[in-house]
Amino acid sequence: MAGWSATEITRTTVTNGSRLPQVDFVAEAGQCWHCGSRLRVQKSKKRIVSTIETGTILAREIRKVCSKDSSHPVETSEALSKMVPCRQRYGYDLIAWVGLARYHRNLQRKEIRAELLHKKDIILSDGSISKICDRFLLYVEALHARCIPELRVAMEKGYPLHIDATNEYGKGGLFLCLDGWRGWVLHAAKIATENAEELRPAIDITTALFGDPIAVVRDLGSAGAKAVDQLCQKNIPDLVCHYHFLGAIGKKLFDANYSLLRKLLQRSKIRSGLRELLRDLRKSHASGRYAGKFGQGRMRKALPALILWVLEGEGGKDLPFPFCLPHLNFYLRCCEVTQRLEQWMPLPRSQIERRVLRQLFTVIARLDKIEHFERVAPLLEKSWKVFCELRNILRLTDAELPRGDRRGLTNSGVPALEAERLHEIEEKTTAYHKEIRQRVAYAQAESQKTTEKSAEAIILKYLDRYSSHLFGHPLLIDDGNILAVVERTNNVAEHFFGADKQKLRRRLGRANLGRDLEDQPAQAVLVSNLNHPDYVKITCGSLENLPAAFAEIGRAEVKKVSTLQRSNKDTELMKYICAMIADEKTMIQISCN
Q: Which has fewest Cβ within 10 Å: 23, 108, 515, 588?
């Protein structure tokens, strides 16, 4: 407290059974700013204040008023006003500390409470922590709004607008507008459902605050397409994500047959039979010898390895559907087991090995006893071949999928090479579009039947509809050098939502986020901007200076920002229903009495 020129510890006061140091905060002004007259002490006000720097104290503010005219403005302590908001208990540094612990470090409330008590000797209840977190979010939003002019200067060369929405189990969710080059959240809004009427206002607010983007990147949803109509009318490129484009085609190609294959495999119980066999071999196999229900004798390690290969393949992590078809791959491995057996376990074979292999083939033979296997698998294989052909044309690598490792991209850090790659992909896609049209026309002429449901016809339909939205990604050029290229996927938003849900699970300690995601205020995602040093430098200089930045924000600025909305589906109607039910219960109790 030595650095406080306007404060003084006067005594220790007992408050609510606790001994608190009383600190005087005297108004610093020496004369009335209105008339220049001498000031006199008007009165003092006390309140309990908790800050990270001082702990919990009893602050006594000594106010002054003009000695000549008491109607002139009352002078208050600037030191106290910079420490804690007017008429509140919790200081700016405590608000910033708790908010960062909750939304930046993703601590649970009990962890925050324990750390405050252990390190800062501050006692807070779970309810108080929640209230402080809400104030933190309001200050973050107010700081974001206050620094928009400076942020626009940093974005003066343009920005690609990535838009996306998320929800959990069909409940209300969140809509984001992101700067794709910087990763900044420009605006966020809670939505009940993903439709154009709810998305368009958020996009309008974003463009009003930060200007028109150089391009929009979105998924294939009709709501997003309608929501950006006004930007399209200004000739701003409306680009669809290549990952979502391929994913939509894959789902259309595979969904029906793949779902049927999954049900057939579940009905056959082949996997459970193989797992049971593998468990027995693991339990009874040691040092090349087997002793179990198949007898006793020599058994090579290759045999349990073969069964494990049928079940798990090479053991790598599967890509998301439809970029990987695990059930089809399992079926194909079952069909290839004989060929693999000849390579891994050449003759001669022991009696135990022959018995185990007999059981293995008995389990796999269940494939032949169930109808539709022979029809479904070839259709899926044919569709998969055409899908992979299109994916190779678009050159969408595993690293460009939503949870892919961007470091696996050869050109990810060289914009000029990435621009050249996009140009090559566009040329090949245009040629492929013409080729696939010829294939479909030839098939129709040959069979004299409609081929709308063929794999080629489905791909042609999607290319006809979205080809104009696949390419035309703007470049950021300075002095003839390409500095950045607009991403061809919406992974910046997909990664954001994935990371945000992980953080939410960490804060709440549960996996099902249906209700929690619906109740989380939209302002919570603005805190992610504090992970970006360039954003932090513009808004507050550094995270250590965040409390001072909060102190500079007036109460009027905080009131201007939107309130924290924790529900977005018929809140008023639900309150009305609860009131009506309560009235019914009251009437029943009265009648019973």
A: 588
**Per-residue buried b or exposed e for 99-113, using 16+ beta carbons within 10 Å of the residue's own CB:** bbbbbbeebbbeebb
Q: What does the block give as tokens for 420?
A: 């050249």
Helix/strand/coil for 218: strand
For residues 200 and 217, the answer to whether their CB atoms sit within 8 Å is no
Query: H-helix or E-strand containing 163?
Result: strand 160-166
Domain ranges of the chain: 1-89, 92-154+533-562, 157-240+492-531, 251-370, 378-485
* Cα–Cα distance, 426 to 138 (Å, whole number): 45
User: Cβ neighbours of residue 194 under 8 Å, at least 6 residues apart?
Assistant: 165, 167, 173, 175, 221, 223
pLDDT in the model for residue 478: 86
SS3 377: helix
Question: What percentage of the chain carries pLDDT values higher than 70?
Answer: 88
Read off φ and ψ for residue 509, nearest 5 degrees: 75, 25
Return phi, psi of residue 288, to 5°.
Answer: 80, 5
The mean pLDDT of 430-438, rounded to a whole number, is: 95
Measured distance CA(257)–CA(376) in Å, rounded? 6
Question: For residue 240, is it left (φ>0), alpha (ψ between -120 and 50) or beta?
Answer: beta
What's CA 80's distance to the chain center, in Å? 39
Residue type, 485: V
> What's the pLDDT tens digit per position in 476-498?
988 888 989 999 999 888 888 88
Identity of the residue numbered 406: R
In 147-241, alpha helices (H): 148-154, 196-210, 222-227, 229-233
Helix or strand holding residue 519 (H, E): helix 514-519
CA 521 – CA 517 distance, rounded (Å) = 9
Burial string for 410-449 (b: 16+ CB within 10 Å, else e) reads: eeeeebeebbebbeebbeebeebbeebeebbeeeeeeeee
- For 145, 526, 556, the CA distances from 150, given in Å and listed in that order, are 10, 17, 20
Q: How many residues does the chain have?
A: 593
Residues 47, 41 contacting (CB under 8 angstroms)? no
- The tokens for 481 are 């050098």
Q: Which amino acid is residue 275, in one-letter code?
A: R
Mean pLDDT for all residues in the chain: 86
CA distance 418 to 486: 10
